[in-house]
Each structure stands twice: as structure tokens, then as C-alpha cells.
Design goal:
The chain is α+β, with helices and mostly antiparallel strands. The longest helix has about 30 residues.
């Protein structure tokens, strides 16, 4: 009679004995809670990996996908204008896009790279 060999070379009888010892040590409810926590942890891990892949795609020039938490009625706020010093006086030369981070002329109302609206910085 040929028995199936499980992980680490353990047979079915050894696995059943290990499971019984775990149930005796921790109790059935604690093992069920542990399984639920493990499932939630795996789900969070996959979610974070997916978000990280989307962020990496955004950095490569793909347009940013709006998140579910972002409100459609509130436009993104542009970062402060980039200033250059000339003869002791600062002049604003570019505004950074809040979506893709591309630099745009100060008078631009939309990003030259992704087309997102650029709100005027509040001073």
C-alpha cells in the first residue's frame, strides 16, 4: 500500500496528529480566529501590492487613475510654483501638476502632460 506524502515528507497520520496537538494547545475558536486573521493579512498584502503597481505605472508616464476616496467635486491642489532668483528678485517660472508632477508654465490651466486641471495656488 502506497501512502501519499505531504509537505516536508509528512504522511497523513502525522499531519492529523499535528492538527490535534494544535487544537489541544490553542482551542478550536482560537485557530479559527488565526485563520481569519491570516486571510485578512493576505488580502491587505495583495491590496498594497496592487496599489504599489499602480503607483509604479503612474511614474512611467501613464495617466493617474482616480481613487475611490477622492471626491469628484474638489479639484486637486497644485503644488507651490517653482521660483527662480534673478537679480535678487524671485520670479515664478513653473507650476507642478498635482496629478503627474510635470512642470507647467505658470499661466497654464491644464497640465501639458496628463491634461489634469491645475488650480491656482492659494497665497
Amino acid at each position: 500500500m502506497l501512502l501519499a506524502v505531504g509537505p516536508f515528507g509528512l504522511g497523513p497520520m502525522e499531519l492529523v496528529i499535528i492538527l490535534l496537538v494544535l487544537v489541544l494547545l490553542f482551542g478550536a475558536t482560537r485557530i479559527a480566529d488565526l485563520g481569519g486573521s491570516l486571510g485578512k493579512g493576505i488580502k491587505e498584502f495583495r491590496k498594497n501590492v496592487k496599489e504599489e503597481e499602480e503607483e509604479d505605472g503612474d511614474e512611467e508616464g501613464e495617466p493617474a487613475k482616480p481613487s475611490a476616496s477622492a471626491s469628484a467635486s474638489t479639484p486637486p491642489v497644485a503644488s507651490p510654483p517653482v521660483a527662480a532668483a534673478q537679480n535678487g528678485a524671485e520670479t515664478v517660472s513653473a507650476v507642478k501638476c498635482p496629478s503627474c508632477g510635470a512642470l507647467n508654465p505658470v499661466e497654464a490651466k491644464h497640465c501639458n502632460q496628463c491634461g489634469a486641471a491645475i488650480a491656482a495656488p492659494v497665497s
